[in-house]
Amino acid sequence: MDLIENEEYGYCSLIKATHQVLEKLKIENITRAKVTNTKRVEKNLIAPIPMREAVINAIVHSDFSREIPPVFEIFNDKMIFTSYGGLLPGQSKEDFFSCSSMPRNRELMRVFKDVGLVEQLGSGMSRILKEYDKSIFHISEHFIKVEFPFSLPKDNTIIANGDDNGNEIGDDDSEMMKVLGLLEENASITAKQMSEQMDISARKVSRLIKALKENGKIIRVGSDRKGYWKITQ
Predict the structure, then answer these.
(1) 212: which of 4, 75, 92, 217 fits an S-S bond (Cβ 3.0–4.6 Å)?
(2) Do residues 28 and 20 make contact, with C-beta atoms less than 8 angstroms apart?
């Protein structure tokens, strides 16, 4: 209910939108560590390969005739991907989980395969079920939801961004101060520009900005494209 961030990835080609969603979720899919008596366990919040396949499935199999786009939600303990359309006419749940290809949008599937987003027809479901149980799928008459629980709870140590494991978190406080300084100089500065000036990855900049937003130190005024940042504290 307490919405922290809302981003729109529409108004462009589905291929571009898919890449944008995948990139955003890679940033959010951080690595957490849990130290036990015998070993140290490090895991992404969600297994990266099933997450990617679920995103692509939600887009390529969505029923766009009602102009209802897929929705990708991030909570503090899970991610939920929702697509409109339900099962195809004549398709059973057994068919859905059998990893046999029954594309809703054949031309869209062909294009996604041509550009390398889909490797082999029907292979996406098998990659998801290799890591997760069927219970993560919730199928209704009009919607299909995939609910990925986080592998480790929030109170475990964050090691790195999910797609930037070499960029470890060590001096976040000083880097947050640098971000605030750059935002004070230029409220419309982009994450890419900040990463170049700070000599860190754009993904880490995005994570630092998110932390500043969650701590109430900055807010976004206006749209993502034409808005600007405002320092509140």
Answers:
(1) 217
(2) no
